[in-house]
């Protein structure tokens, strides 16, 4: 009975790891595609008012992919590092927003 339980647990872990690897490969391919799109837009010399916002969005999406899939922030037990990262991002955003308002005002 114990041997059956061990093989079931092993099969479950193998399935989880296979699914996680699949997600990482898909994420990696998407990040490469985003990078190619970004380089293509810059090389095509499109309007900077169009390119810059798109580049910023692509960069934010890539950072999210990095955190969740390659740094394993979606797993249990990573709540405190995630809180620190989100807190740092909030402070950085508020700092940039504050400096932007001060300069433009």
Q: Mind telling me the C-alpha Rg?
A: 20 Å
* Helix-strand makeup class: mainly alpha
* C-alpha end-to-end distance: 73 Å
Shape: flat
Sheet with most strands: none
The tally of beta strands, per DSSP, is: 0
> How helical, in percent, are the residues?
over 70%
Number of helices: 3
Approximate strand percentage? under 5%
Structural notes for this entry:
There is one protein chain. With 105 residues, this protein is an all-alpha fold. Helices cover 87% and strands 0% of the residues. It contains three helices and no strands. The protein has helices spanning 2-43, 48-70, 79-104. Helix 1 packs antiparallel against helix 2 (48-70). The model has no long low-confidence stretch (mean pLDDT 86).
Summarize the structure.
It is built from three helices and no strands. It has helices spanning 2-43, 48-70, 79-104.
Question: How do the helices and strands line up, and which of them pair or pack?
Answer:
Elements: H1 2-43, H2 48-70, H3 79-104
Tags for this entry?
mainly alpha, 105 residues, 3 helices
């Amino acid at each position: 009975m114990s041997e059956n339980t061990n093989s079931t647990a092993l099969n479950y872990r193998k399935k989880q790891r296979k699914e996680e690897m699949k997600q990482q490969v898909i994420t990696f391919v998407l990040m490469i595609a985003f990078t190619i799109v970004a380089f293509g837009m810059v090389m095509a010399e499109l309007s900077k008012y169009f390119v810059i916002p798109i580049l910023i969005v692509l960069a934010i999406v890539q950072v999210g992919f990095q955190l969740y899939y390659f740094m394993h922030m979606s797993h249990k037990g990573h709540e405190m590092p995630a809180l620190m990262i989100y807190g740092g991002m909030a402070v950085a955003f508020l700092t940039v927003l504050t400096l932007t308002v001060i300069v433009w005002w």
